[in-house]
Design goal:
single chain, 216 residues, mainly beta, eight-stranded antiparallel β-sheet, two-stranded antiparallel ribbon, 4 helices, elongated
């Protein structure tokens, strides 16, 4: 749940591949085995799906679906704990599993994206080796007000991330629902959202997590 990845907690989660492809188009001359379930997909899709997706026609549009598992880290989250000589940044490392579905209209423009993410990872203090494991599960739905235009996307996320220390129990639970507007503004938030609070200036929101990692 490294900070660039916890977009359901602090911002947009749209795939980097989707963003970089937003100004491009892609023609699926051969859509692969999944396309055989419907008609071959030969039209241009905007923005194009990442390479690990397979696409098929469905009704008057196209559905593309893909799944990926990757290991990452340790990466600096940008979260700082403690003060003075004992200060440290929190690093994130683990495994990320994702499954995403894209919906394109008859013109080949993206209208909606649904993504399911799981993390089995840990936050750590590299100075001492202290670590706190966590699991994260969430579902994100991205709706494009203007088909094909990522700048018009609104994102809704539900789920939770739980940091638990043996013999101490949960030191942080971030859960609930968030809605981010097309300009990245948080429009709605429900449930404990410690990460949003932290990046909005309330450093005490992550105090127990920092203490578990050795902050004094």
């Amino acid at each position: 749940m490294r900070i660039p990845r916890i977009r359901p907690i602090i911002g947009l989660i749209i795939d980097p591949a989707l963003i970089t492809g937003s100004l491009a188009t892609f023609t699926l001359a051969s859509a692969g085995p999944a396309a055989a379930a419907g008609q071959p997909v030969t039209q241009t899709l905007t923005p194009p799906p990442p390479s690990y997706y397979t696409c098929k026609t469905a009704g008057n549009g196209v559905i593309c679906e893909g799944a990926l598992s990757e290991s990452y880290g340790p990466d600096d989250t940008g979260i700082a704990c403690g003060s003075g000589a004992g200060a440290f940044d929190i690093f994130d490392q683990g495994t990320h599993n994702k499954h995403a579905i894209r919906f394109y209209n008859a013109a080949g423009d993206l209208t909606r994206l649904i993504r399911y993410d799981q993390y089995f990872s840990q936050f750590s203090n590299l100075l001492t080796g202290a670590a706190v494991p966590y699991t994260q599960h969430y579902t994100t739905t991205v709706i494009l007000a203007v088909p094909g235009d990522l700048a018009s996307a609104t994102e809704t996320t539900t789920g939770e991330v739980n940091f638990t220390v043996p013999h101490l129990g949960a030191v942080l639970l971030n859960a609930g629902r968030t809605v981010f507007g097309a300009d990245g503004t948080l429009e709605f938030s429900a449930g404990p959202q410690g990460f949003i609070d932290y990046f909005n200036g309330n450093t005490a929101a992550l105090a127990e997590l920092c203490t578990a990692l050795g902050a004094s």
